[in-house]
Design goal:
The chain is 77% helix and 1% strand. This is FecCD family ABC transporter permease.
Length: 342
C-alpha cells in the first residue's frame, strides 16, 4: 500500500473512530434523564457510585450503545462481502432476503417460545443467532436456485429474486406474529422493525463469539474479495478456488447478518450504504474498505438509534425506521446512477 494511500486510510479510520466516540458521549449523557459528563466518568470508574446513575448507564444506555456499534459493524462488513461476492453494487442483506430469512426463523423460534419472550434467558439469546443463521442460509439457497441461469449467477436476477423472496418471507413472519398473544406480538412487532431498545448484556454476549470468529475470517480473505471482482476465468487463472471461497465468504456474511438480526431485528440499508461510502473514501481494495465499512455502519446505527430515542421523545422510533428514511433515497440514487451507466 503506497504511503499516501495508507496515510489517508489511517486518517479516515481515526476520524471515524473519533466520531463514534463523540456519538457514544452524546448517547451516554443525553436522554430522558440527562447525566453530566463528570458523573458519567465517576460511574464508569466506580468512584462513589450512584445507584440511579448505575441503572441508567449500565442497564439502559451502555448495552444499547454496544449493540448499536456491533450491529452497524456487522451489517456494514456483511454488505461489503455480499456486494463483493455477487459483483453487484445494489446487493444488500435486506434486499437479497437474508435479513428476512434470518428474521422469519427467529420469529418461528419466538412463536414456539411464547409466554417467555419477556424473560430473557441464556437459552433464548444463544439460540436466536443459530436460528437466524439457518433461516439466512435457507433464504440464500433459495435465491441462488432461482437466480442461477446458464451456469452463472446473474446480478439482475439475483436482486429481483431476493426482493421477491424477502417479500414472501416477511409475509410469513407477519402471519406468525399475528398469531401470538398481545404482549408477545407487541414485542416482536417492535423487534422486527429494527429496534435495539431492549438491548442487554446477554444479547452482547450472544453475538460476540460470532464477531470474534467471522470478522477475522472475512478480513483474512480481503485479497480474495479483490480478486473476485475479476471475471470468473481471470480469478481462476490466478489460483482462486472460486466456488469454495465464495461459499466461505457468503457463509461468514450470512452468519454476521443472522447474529445482528437476532438482537436488533430487521435494520436494512446499512449493508447497501456503508460499502458505497467506504469505496468513495478509500477506493476498491477490501483491505481498506472493510474497516471503513465497519466504522460507517457503526456510525449510521448509533446516529439512527440516538435520533429515534430523542428527537421524537417521549415516543421512540426504532433505529430501523430512521435508517430506512435515509436508505430509500440512497437506494433510488444508486439505482438511477447505475441505470445511467448501463
Amino acid at each position: 500500500m503506497p504511503a499516501k494511500i495508507k496515510g489517508t486510510f489511517v486518517l479516515l479510520l481515526l476520524a471515524g473512530l473519533g466520531l463514534i466516540a463523540a456519538l457514544i458521549y452524546v448517547s451516554l449523557t443525553n436522554g430522558e434523564f440527562d447525566i453530566p459528563v463528570k458523573d458519567i466518568a465517576r460511574t464508569l470508574l466506580r468512584i462513589d457510585p450512584n445507584p440511579d446513575y448505575d441503572l441508567v448507564v449500565f442497564e439502559f444506555r451502555l448495552p444499547r450503545i454496544v449493540i448499536a456499534v456491533l450491529v452497524g459493524m456487522g451489517l456494514g462488513v456483511a454488505g461489503a462481502v455480499i456486494q463483493g461476492v455477487t459483483r453487484n453494487g445494489l446487493a444488500d442483506p435486506g434486499m437479497l432476503g437474508i435479513n428476512a430469512g434470518a428474521g422469519v426463523a427467529i420469529v418461528v423460534f419466538l412463536y414456539f417460545y411464547q409466554g417467555q419472550i419477556r424473560e430473557v434467558t441464556w437459552l433464548s439469546v444463544m439460540a436466536m443467532p443459530l436460528f437466524g443463521l439457518i433461516g439466512g442460509l435457507l433464504a440464500a439457497l433459495l435465491i441462488y436456485l432461482f437466480a442461477w441461469k446458464g451456469g452463472r449467477l446473474e446480478p439482475q436476477r439475483l436482486l429481483l429474486t431476493g426482493l421477491a423472496i424477502a417479500s414472501g418471507l416477511s409475509a410469513v413472519s407477519l402471519f406468525l406474529t399475528l398469531r401470538m398473544n398481545a404482549q408477545d406480538f407487541e414485542m416482536v412487532a417492535v423487534w422486527t422493525s429494527g429496534s435495539i431498545y431492549n438491548a442487554n448484556w446477554k444479547y452482547i454476549a450472544s453475538i460476540l463469539p460470532w464477531f470474534a470468529v467471522l470478522v477475522p475470517v472475512i478480513y483474512a480473505r480481503s485479497h480474495t474479495l479483490n480478486l473476485l471482482q475479476l471475471d470468473d476465468d481471470s480469478a481462476r487463472s490466478v489460483g482462486v478456488r472460486l466456488e469454495r471461497q465464495k461459499a466461505i465468504l457468503l457463509l461468514a456474511g450470512i452468519g454476521l447478518v443472522s447474529a445482528c438480526v437476532s438482537v436488533a431485528g430487521g435494520i436494512g440499508f446499512i449493508g447497501l450504504i456503508a460499502p458505497h461510502i467506504a469505496r468513495r473514501l478509500v477506493g476498491q481494495a477490501h483491505q481498506r474498505t472493510l474497516p471503513i465499512c465497519a466504522v460507517v455502519g457503526a456510525l449510521l446505527v448509533l446516529a439512527a438509534d440516538f435520533i429515534g430515542k430523542t428527537i421524537f421523545s417521549p415516543v421512540e422510533l426504532p433505529a430501523g425506521i430512521i435508517v430506512a428514511i435515509l436508505g430509500v433515497p440512497s437506494f433510488v440514487y444508486l439505482l438511477r446512477r447505475r441505470k445511467g451507466r448501463a
